[in-house]
Structures are given as C-alpha cells and as structure tokens.
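Lab channel / #folding
Pinned by the channel admin:
"Please post every new chain as: sequence first, then the structure tokens as a reply. Keep commentary short and put observations after the output so the thread stays searchable."

First post following the new format, from NK:
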Amino acid sequence: MLVMFTVMMGAPLSSCIAASSISLQVTLGFSNTFRPARWTPLTVTLGNHGRDVSGYLEVRTRDGDEFRDNAFDITHRRLIDLTRDSRKRVHFTVRMPNVAHPLVIRFVADGKELAAEHIDLRTHFTANRLLLVVSRDANLDYLNDKTDHGIRVLYPHPELLPDHWQGYDAVEAIILHGVSLEELSARQYDALRKWIAQGGTFAVSGGADYAWLRTPRMIELFPASP
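Reply from TO:
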C-alpha cells in the first residue's frame, strides 16, 4: 500500500560534553515523540573532540513494577571506536515498555562513563497513532487539531528514520512528498521496504517535478510507472 512524508530536522533531545570531550546527542522516536509499549527508533550521535577512544554505547530501559518487586533493566549495547575529531551516528530499535522510568544512554570506555543522558519519557510520549510526513514543504499540522481523529502528525528527518522495520511499529502511515528514497541508507531503505511488504501504508505525492518518482528505489516499490 502507498502514502506521503515531510522533512523537518528534529532538534536533538539533549546533549552533553563530558570532561572526556565526548559529546552525545539523542533523538528519540520520530521528532522526539514515541508511543509507549511499541518498538521505537532511537538515534544517538557521538562526537569525539579528544584522543582516540574505544568503548561501548549503552541504551537502557526499565520494565516491570517497582511496588511488586519485579522491575528489571533491558540493556542494548554497541561497541564503538571513535577516532579524534570524528562523529558517528548509531541507530537502535528499542521497545519502550512504559514512561515511569527514564531512558538511560551512556558511553563507557575503560570502565569509565564518559558521557550520559537520562531522558524523562513522560514528556515525549503520545497515545495517538503516528502519521509521518517526509517532505520539503508539505504541512499537515491541521490534522493535529482534529483530536477526535487520534492522529499525531510528525516530520522526521530522513537521516533519522529507522534502520529496522520494527522501528515503524507505532506508525499508522507514511507520506512522501518531493524527497527521494535514494537519500536513505541501504539499511533504512530495506527497513521501509519490509514495513510496506507487511502491510504498512505508504503514500506518495509527486508535484510538478516527478523525476524523483523514476528513481530505482521508487520504481521498485511502485506497482505502476509514473
């Protein structure tokens, strides 16, 4: 099935530069919005302004009930090598069990925490279904005023789209307008293709310049030639 998308660079949720000269920026979900109990994309951008360093990036969520003494941590880790003056963007797909506990992101090297963020999930969740718009100029904000529709329109940047199809778990539909799928990485495109193949709704609006509709990836997805 097919739909449409708008591009707006989501501001990083938070950033900090530790004494180690490691910077850490986080974008949670889509435009820093997510749905609880759904698989959610998480993008972490690391920067190194000091010596070469090797360590691991850790993302930790917490599930269960503290009052019933059955709470437990869920941890995702990636080994990371950071050379001097380098930046790396790392994608995760994380299930957010609830909003009661903060999301913790840490970069650890040689047993030391060099950078960390604790994100209060209570300020970034929505119960509404997500409509993603990736575009240069499309604006569907009026749908956010229709509270009875139960839809939340968001404008994620293509670079921050999931690299695993489960990252679209909370997404009702995607609208693409004037943005080429060739901008996505191979993993991001594969994730989108698999999500569509499993019944995801993907709509495309052409506009006056339809050359981007004839790009290889668009041709692969479309049932007909524009």
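NK: The mean pLDDT is 86.
TO: also worth noting, The helical segments are 186-197, 216-221.
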